[in-house]
Specification:
Mean pLDDT: 92
Strand content: 35-45%
Distance between the termini: 99 Å
Number of helices: 5
Structural class: mainly beta
Number of domains: 5
Low-confidence stretches: 1-25
Oligomer: single chain
Length: 645
């Protein structure tokens, strides 16, 4: 029998992976190279220095920031210019996202995007207004015919604003490739006069995380942060970190540009191990279809605990992002006892400003008795596939008994010091229900289920059920949940774990209603993670059960909203009526206005709770019977009727 050459096979797999990464990067690199340096003009105030509040690839809470956020000195109404010749391919108007937004297609195959505008130029505004009246809708998503709305380079297309999900006046600007991936405008080339940056990235904190139950960092299991701001003249932090087994490196870093205090993203981060390139993150383009994967690119659990957004310098399970162009062992670093690995992290911004931090990972044996203080996290703590339990050390008995659905097991401490024991439970092997400590005390843990990623999964109890789709999870989760009746309100409470797992999609939930309600059909589900500001979720009640979809772990209850929206006339002047609308609990759902029985456009800015009218014929007097209907998410409706003279 002929033996297979496994070594050759292994080399072939690595070779094909290398070829794949090269082929993946090649078209994108060509996109940058095929754009002339002077092809685009800066889209706002091109004759003066501009300042940024956001850059390409900046790590936001739910997405990678695409393009640039250009400051407008807190003002609205600055002229926004077409960055190059072309035609308007898309116009969007809405209350969320990009708000009032223009898309321009250019002859070289690229397109540009201009978002959060206050208003459009006269031609685009009239085109949009006609379509809004045709569709009888304030929010529209329009696709003009090719070359129907032609623009020249430097032509005024609109005016800067604060529409959509913007939190302050600015212009959001993007350059997109022919396949609609977002490119970095600063890499394409604007003059340093327009956006200056000679400040290197700030590398502030480093984290080293154990990647399996047997790994250790400074003799302990978990994730440990190190302050790297205080460095010597060579940019080095010379601390030695003692590790055992496989670890992952994370970095909290940001970049500042001249004249602005905003903390922007760092697009290029290299990790060298013993002077060899080991891992590279290069955010040179963004695919909108993969935006939500920022939740797996960053450490979601650590962000919830520390309020800092760390780059993982490794590729975790369930991460499909393409911009890791070098990834030996997916970035994980394995250190054997007595082995020394010199690690250097180099970070670079779009202008080539450069920062470095270095440290040493020294391999040690995995020992049980340690001298370091142990950080005790309440009674238990979950990290990836491992449950950590803590107990004060006893002079005689330090064993614990862990019970699951089918039996029990006795555990010795995984490690300890003079004061505390730490027990590590592999959740892939058992899902604990209760722990009994040596002194007889008990701790209920009540893991409900293990849910694998990328598969359909259902979980059913007597009072609730959960359905996970193939696209719900990034990685396997181990969740705890409970459904009970609150003693004070007598209403149902459903709590599903702490918010430590990011969700890619929704979980379909059904509750058997256990609480007491006066008019059950009027109740809907609300998130009460912030009890002072309940957030509307919704749901459908049928046969004593309520179905709803949850998009995050946390705490939910049933509440009713019987109060209709508040609707007040603000003013009638200059042939425009403006109205203030708001809703205390469930939030505004829809509105519609009519003048003398004919549909009337009402523009909406939810940040100001403001509606204002705009007629198709602006010369026509705004007179007659005005009626405005406003409904909230609970179905309550308010009607404002006025006779405008």
């Amino acid at each position: 029998m002929k033996k297979k050459n496994y070594w050759k096979l292994r080399l072939s797999k690595k070779y094909f992976l290398w070829i794949y990464l090269v082929l993946l990067a090649a078209p994108l690199q060509a996109q940058y190279e095929n754009i002339d340096k002077d092809y685009f003009e800066f889209p706002i105030q091109p004759q003066k220095e501009n300042f940024l509040s956001g850059n390409m690839g900046e790590l936001r809470s739910s997405h990678f920031h695409a393009g640039l956020d250009i400051k407008t000195d807190g003002k609205q109404g600055l002229e926004v210019l077409s960055a190059a010749e072309g035609y308007v391919s898309r116009i969007r108007v809405g209350t969320g996202g990009y708000g009032n937004c223009i898309y321009i297609q250019h002859p070289n195959g690229t397109s540009t995007v201009y978002a959060h505008l206050r208003n459009f130029n006269e031609i685009l505004a009239q085109y949009t207004l006609k379509e809004q009246y045709k569709r009888k809708s304030f929010a529209v998503n329009l696709f003009p015919r090719r070359n129907e709305l032609v623009v020249k380079k430097g032509e005024i297309i609109g005016y800067s604003g604060n529409s959509g999900s913007s939190t302050g006046p600015h212009l959001h600007f993007e350059v997109r490739s022919s396949d609609q991936k977002v490119l970095d405008p600063l890499r394409i080339g604007f003059t340093e006069f327009q956006v200056k940056d000679n400040i290197p990235p700030a590398l502030e904190r480093l984290a080293v995380k154990t990647m399996n139950i047997n790994a250790r960092v400074n003799d302990q299991f978990g994730r440990f942060e190190f302050d790297v701001r205080h460095q010597n003249a060579q940019g080095l932090n010379t601390d030695t970190i003692y590790v055992h087994g496989q670890v992952g490196i994370e970095l909290y870093a940001y970049d500042k540009l001249n004249g602005a205090s905003n903390r922007n993203g760092v697009p290029l981060i290299d990790v060298y191990v013993n002077d060899n390139l080991y891992f590279r993150q290069d955010i040179d383009s963004i695919d909108f279809a993969l935006q939500k994967n920022i939740l797996i690119h960053t450490n979601y659990q650590a962000e919830r605990e520390t309020r800092r957004r760390f780059n993982k310098l490794y590729v975790d399970d369930g991460n499909p992002l393409h911009f890791y162009t070098e990834r030996k062992n997916d970035g994980f670093i394995k250190v054997q006892p007595n082995e020394v690995k010199k690690v250097r992290i180099e970070a670079e911004d779009a202008y080539g400003n450069h920062s470095t931090v270095s440290f040493v990972l020294k391999g040690v044996e995995n020992i049980a008795c340690i001298s370091e203080p142990i950080k005790v996290r309440d009674d238990s703590y979950t990290l990836d596939n491992t449950l950590m339990l803590f107990q004060k050390r006893d002079s005689l008995n330090n064993k614990i008994t862990v019970y699951n659905k089918t039996g029990s097991g006795v555990y010795e401490p995984s490690y300890y010091n003079n004061e505390h024991n730490v027990y590590l439970i592999d959740l892939r092997k058992t899902l604990p229900k209760e722990v009994v400590y040596a002194d007889g005390s008990k701790h209920e843990i009540e893991y409900a289920d293990r849910v694998p990623a990328a598969s359909e999964h259902s979980f059913l109890t007597d009072s609730y059920s959960l359905k996970f789709s193939k696209s719900t999870l990034f990685d396997t989760i181990y969740f705890r949940a409970k459904h009970y009746v609150d003693e004070k309100t007598k209403h149902d409470i459903f709590q599903i774990d702490d918010d430590i797992y990011p969700l890619k999609g929704g979980i379909i939930a059904q509750l058997q209603i256990l609480g007491e309600y006066d008019s059950l059909e009027q109740y809907q589900v609300y998130s009460i993670d912030n009890p002072r500001r309940p957030s509307f979720v919704g749901g459908n009640i049928k046969d004593g059960k309520i179905d709803f979809t949850l998009y995050g772990f946390g705490k939910y209850t049933l509440m009713k909203d019987l109060e209709p929206p508040i609707v007040k006339k603000r003013s009638v002047q200059n042939n425009i009526i403006s109205v203030i609308i708001s809703d205390e609990l469930s939030g505004i759902n829809n509105f519609e206005a009519k003048l003398n029985g004919e549909w009337l456009l009402m523009n909406y800015e939810p940040k100001l709770n403001l509606l204002w009218s705009e007629q198709l014929d602006k010369n026509k007097p705004l007179k007659g019977q005005f009626e405005l209907k406003v409904a909230d998410n609970a179905g309550n409706e308010s009607i404002l009727k006025l006779n405008i003279e």
